[in-house]
User: Fold Levanase from Glutamicibacter ardleyensis.
Amino acid sequence: LQQVAVMRPELHFSPKKNWINDPNGLFFDGEQYHLYFQHNPHGVGHGYMSWGHAVSTDLVNWTELPIAILHGDAADIFSGSIVVDQENTSGLGDGSTAPIIALYTAAAKDDSNQSQALAYSLDGGATFTKYAQNPVLDRGSKNFRDPKVFRYESSQGSCWVMVVVEAIERRVLIYRSENLIDWTEASSFGPQAATAGIWECPDLIQLPVAGSDQLKWVLLVSLNPGGVAGGSGTQYFVGEFDGFTFTPDKHQEANDSLAFEQLSQVSWLDWGRDFYAGVSFHGLPVNQQTIIAWMSNWDYARDLPHDGWRGSMSAARTLDLVQLGDGGFEIRQRLNGLPESPVPTSTVLTGETHIELSAPALVELSFAGGFTGQARLLLHRADHSVISEVTVEPSLIQHHRSAGKVAHELYASSQRMPLPEDSTELVIQVLLDHGSIEILGADGRRSLTDQLTGEAVPAYGVLQYSGSTSAVVGVLPLSEKSLER
Ligand code: FRU
Assistant:
C-alpha cells in the first residue's frame, strides 16, 4: 500500500509510527490523563497487538511513552481497561503505592481462545507485570473480549464490576469481583437493538441528568459492522444498574437490519463513519465522565494511506444526559480541553460567504429559532476542489467527504444525522483538524465524526446560505500556539 504524506493531526493523538486502533485503559491519575491503545509495534497493519501508551495534562497535547504491555509469543494483548486499586484489594501492591491494574483480553494468536488477563503496574502506569496465574477469567470462548472494569459503590458496600462481551452472541456479560482476580458472573444483557454486527468494547457508566440531581446508568456497545453510517458504530442504552443487572428503560427487540430507516431508530453515540470503541476514563468524577474513541472504521482502516503511522483518536468528549419530553434520555457531548465558544462571529447573509479557515479550527454556526432553508459549508483545497461538505437543514445534518487520496471504494461517502424535533435554536460546532472533522449539533445531542484521511489544511471555506432567519458564523483558529496556557 502507498506511503504518502499524511499530515498529522494537532489536536488529536496519533502514534509516532505504526498501527493503532481502540483506546484502552483510559485513566486519570490526579495529574495526568493516560491513554493506552491497541498498537502494533512492528508495522502499519493490525497485528502483534500490544498496549501503546501516551499521557496528557489537557486531553489535547499528548506525549507518547514506551509500549506498556507487549504481546507474547502465543497471545496478543487485545482491548481492556485500567483501575487504580486504592485499597490494594488485589494484594498486588507493594505496601506503599496503590497498584494500577490492567485487565485485558489475551487473544490466542491461533484464534483458539480469548480470555481475560491481568497485569499490574507499581510505577504509575509506565511498566506492567503480567500476573503469574493468568488468565483470571476464561470461558473457553473464542470471542470473549474487551473487559471494562469499574468500582461499584452502594450502601451495601462496594465491589469491582466488569462488563465484557461475547462478541458473536451480541451479549454483554456482567461479572463481579472482590479482588480483581476472582470473577463471578452476575448477569448478561442482549441481544437488543442494533445486532447486524458483532458486539465489542462495552462500557457501563453513570451519567448526571442535566438540570437535576438524578444519575442514570448508560451502557455503551460498539458493533461492527451494522453501525448507522455503515461498518463500525456505537449504540447506547439508558437504564438502571443494581450492581448485578443492567435494565434498560425501554426494551428494544434485536434487529439485524442494515437499512437506515431501522438503524436510525437506535440511540447512536455518533452518526459518522469514524468513531469506534469509545470508552470512558477511570478516575474522573461522575459529572466529568469523558470518552475517547478510535477515529476509524474496520470497513477500510487497514487500507488507508499511511506515512509510517496509521490511525488517530477522536477528541475527548465529556458526557451527560438530557431528559426528553417523552421521559426518555439522550447523551449530550461536549468537546473537552478546547475553548467553549469561538470568537469573533459575524452574521451571515443569504448567498455565499467566503470564510478564512485552516485546520486546526473550531467553527460555530448558529441559526435562530424557526430557521428554514439550508446552509452548506464547503471545505476547499488550494486547487479549489472540495474536501468535505456539511449541509445543515432544520431537521438534518449531512456530511459528504470526497475520496481524496483514499482509493478504497467504501471511503467516499455521505453520512446523515437527523436532528431532534424539539431543538429550537440550532448551534453546530465543527472541529477541524488535519485528517478529521467532528460535527456536534443540537446542544451536543448529535455528533458526527469522519476522517478526512490525508487531507491537510483546508485552504478556505465557503458558506452557502439560503435560510429564512439570521445565521451567525464564528471561526476560532486552534493552532498549538493559540492553545498554550
Ligand atoms: C475493536 C476490537 C476489539 C479487540 C481489538 C483488537 O476494534 O476488535 O474487540 O479487542 O479491536 O485489536
Notes: The two ends are 40 Å apart (CA to CA).
